Protein 1
Amino acid sequence: MSGRVIVVTSGKGGVGKTTASANIGVALASTGASVALVDMDIGLRNLDILMGLENRVVYNLVDVVEERCKLRQALVKDKKLGNLSLLPAAQTRDKSAVTAEQMKKLCDELKAMYDFVLVDSPAGIEQGFQNACAGAEEAIVITTPEMSAVRDADRIIGLLEARKDEIKEYRLVLNRYRPNMVANNDMMSVDDVLEILSVKLLGVVPEDEEIIISTNKGEPIAGTENVRAGLAYRNIARRIRGEDVAIMDLTPQSQTWLNKIVSFFSPPVRV
Amino acid sequence: MQMQILDWIFRPNLKTDDARVTARDRMKSMLTHDRLELPAGRLESLEEELTAVVSRYFDLDKDTTHFDLQQYERRASLIANFRLIRSKC
C-alpha cells in the first residue's frame, strides 16, 4: 500500500492550521480511510491537545527519528476512531531536531502503513516548514480572509511552486469565513481570495464558536453532526478522496433585527 | 415615502468606502510587488524612463499615458499604453 502524504501549512500562525489538521484527519478517518496525523511543530506541540490525546503521549517523533523507540510505539491511537493515529511532536526540542532526509524516510514508512499521512507544519517559511514538506506530494494551504494571512499564504504558495517536482498539487482552505461580513461588503469573499491567489479551492470553513468548545473538549468538530464547520471539514475530506462536493451555501444564516424591521415594512430592497 | 424614509434610516449598503473592495485592491497591488520583489517607486522610475525614450520618437499625449502591472495566474504583465500624436523627424 502506498498512501498519500499531505502537508498542511499556512505561513502565518494563528489561522487555524492545527485545528484544520485535526479536523481533516478525523473527517478522513470517518470516511473509512486509515490516517496518520504527524505533528511537525517541534517544540510547540499542540495537535495532541486538539485531539484530546495529551495524556496518552509516551514517545514522540524525535524519539522515533533518534531510534529511542519503534515507530509503532510512538503512534497514539485516537479515542474514538481506530483507524486514526497521532505521531506527536517533541515538546522540549526545537525545529533542528529532525532533518529533511529523516522526515522523508519517516513519511515513506508511514505511507506504507496508512492511506493518508497528514503533516501539520509549523508556522513560518523557514527550515521547519521545509522539513514538514520533505516527504509530501500534496499540500493544503490554510488561510483566513484577512490581508496579512492572505499575503503569507501567497508566500507559501510561491515556495510550494518552487518545489513543483515533489509537491504535485496544492489547494486552499479558507478558514474562519464570516458570511455576514461578506454580505455587508466588510470582508473579502471566497471569490476575491481565489482571484488574488490564483489557487484551487479545497473548502471553506465558516467561523464557528463551536470550534472553541470542541477544542476545549478535545473532540474535533468534524465528528459532530449538525454543525456547519463540522460539515465543512467532512466535505473537505470527501473532496480529498476525489468526490465532487459543492461548496456549501454561505449566505448569512440569520438576519439582524435591523434587516428584519426593514423587510417587515418594505418589499425586498434592490441594491 | 414611508419606505424611502426607512430605507434612508436602515439601508445597510450606504457605505461608499467599501472595506471589502479596498482590501482586495490593496492585496492585488501588494502581492504583485511581493511576487516580483519589486521595491516601492521602481515602477514609477521605469515609467519615467520609458516615457522619455518614446518621447524621443513621438509627440505623446502625456495625460492619457497608462502604465500598469496586471496579474494573470500568478504572473505579472507590464501594460504600457502611450497615446501617440505624431512622429518626430
Protein 2
Amino acid sequence: MLRWLILLSSAVVLAFTLRNDTPYTLPIPASFGHRYTIPADNPMTLEGVALGRFLFYDSLLSKNNTISCSSCHQQNRAFTDGFALSIGVNGRTTARNSMSLANLLWVRHFFWDGHSPTLEDQALIPMAHPDELGLAPEKAARKLQQTAFYPPKFKRAFGTDSITPLLMAKALAQFERTLISAQAPYDQYLRHQYTLTAAEKRGLDLFMRTSDPTKGIRGANCTHCHGGAQFFQNVFHNNGLDASPLDPGRQEVTGFDADFARFRVPTLRNIAVTGPYMHDGRFRTLDEVIDHYSEHVASSRTLSTDLKGPMHLTSSEKKDLIAFLHTLTDTEFLQNPAFSNPFLTQ
Amino acid sequence: MKKLLLLSGCLFGAWNVSAQVILKVTGEVTTPLQLQASDLKALPHTEVKAVDKDQKEHHYSGIPLIELLKKAGVTIGGQLRGENLVKYALVRATDGYEVLFALPELDPEFSTRTIVLADAVDGTALPTGVGPYRIVVPGEKKPARWIREVREIEIRFAK
C-alpha cells in the first residue's frame, strides 16, 4: 500500500514538474487597455516566462559567449544601454540606438523601422546579426541543447526538450511581454497618490496641449505622437533631424517614398534613463531633445506636418517639460526582481 | 551613354512611382482592391463643404467612401442589417495612425452626410504630408478622424 502511495505521489510530482500550462497572468493596467495580440501558439506560462528570462540574460546566445540580450538592454536603464549605438560581439557598433523594452506588449511593429510584426519574429534577429550577438539561432539552439541546464527547462515550458530557434524565440517573447512599466510618479498622480510639483504640472500641461496663439494657449503637443497611457502611438514619423537624412528608415521596409526617414515613435516612459536619444543616439540629454523640437527641426520632403514651424519654447517652459518627463521614471520597473538577471539570484 | 542610362533610370523611376499602389481596401470584402492613382482618379467624385481646424469652411473634392465600399463588395445598402451592423472600416494612414467608422456612418441609406476620401481642397491638390488622400467628415466638430495620407481601408467585424 505504501509502495503504491509513494508511486502515486511521485507521479503527481513528476506531472507537476513537467507541466507547461501554468498560466501567467499579465498585470494589465486598466488605462493601457487590451489592444494587443498574444499569438495563439505561444500562450503565456510561468515556465515559458522563466525560461525566456534565463535566455535573455545568457551570453551563450552570442557567438563568443561574451554578450547577451541584456548587454544592450539593461534593466536599470529601462532596458537600454546608455550608448548612442550599441557595441556588438565583434566590437563593431550597431546601425541604430538600442530601444527600451518597456511595454512591448502594446507595440505592433518592432525595431526603429518596424520590420518585425511580432516579438517572436523579432527575438532571433539580433541573435543572428553579425554586429549584435553574431550567432545563427540554429547554432545557438545546438549550444543550449548540449547543456544540462536548458533541455529540462524547455521540456517544462513547451513539452519537449528538443531545442529549436522557434522555441527560443517563443520563450524570449513571453519574458519580454511581462516587461510592463506603469508605476511611475505620473501614474501615482493619476491615482491621486502623488502631487505634481508646480514645474511638473506646468510641464504636463505643455506636454498635453496644442498651441493656440489666438487663445493665448501655449502647448508643445507632445501627445500628438507620444500620447496615451503608454506614451507612444504605433506610428512612424520623420521628426526633422536632418535636411538630407542618410538613413531611409521605414522606407526600407515598405518601399514607399512617403516613408523615407520615418522611424517608430518610441515610448517616453522612463525617458530620463534611456538616453542617448533618437534612432542614431545623437542627443545625449533631454535638454538637447527639447531644443531640437523647439528650434532645430530640419525641413525635408517627408517631415511630419505637425512639426513644421518652430515652437520657440522659453527656457523655463523647457525646464518644466523636462521636470514632467522625469515623472515617467518607474523605479519599481527598473528594480523589479522578476525582470532581473536570474543567474545572479539562483 | 551615361546620359542615356540616367534618362532610362529616370523614366523607370517615374513609371515605378506612378504604378505604385496608393490605396488598399481589404478585410471583409468580396473584391480586395489595390488601387493606383489612375484607378482612384477614375472613380466618381463629389464635392463637400466642411470646416477644418482653422475654423474656416473649405470645399473638398473627393471620392465618397461608399463608392470604394461598393467597388470592394462590402455589405452596404440592403445588406447592411443583422450582424453586418457590427462591421466597421478601419482607416490607416502612412504613419500608422488609425481611425474607425461604423459602416452605417458611411452608407447614404443611414446617414445624411457624405464622408469622402478627398484629393483636393478649394480646387488644389492636397499638399504633401496631407495628401494625396485625406478623409473629410462634414459636420464633425473635431477633425481628429480627418485622417491624412490614407493608405488602407480595412473592413472588419467587431468580435
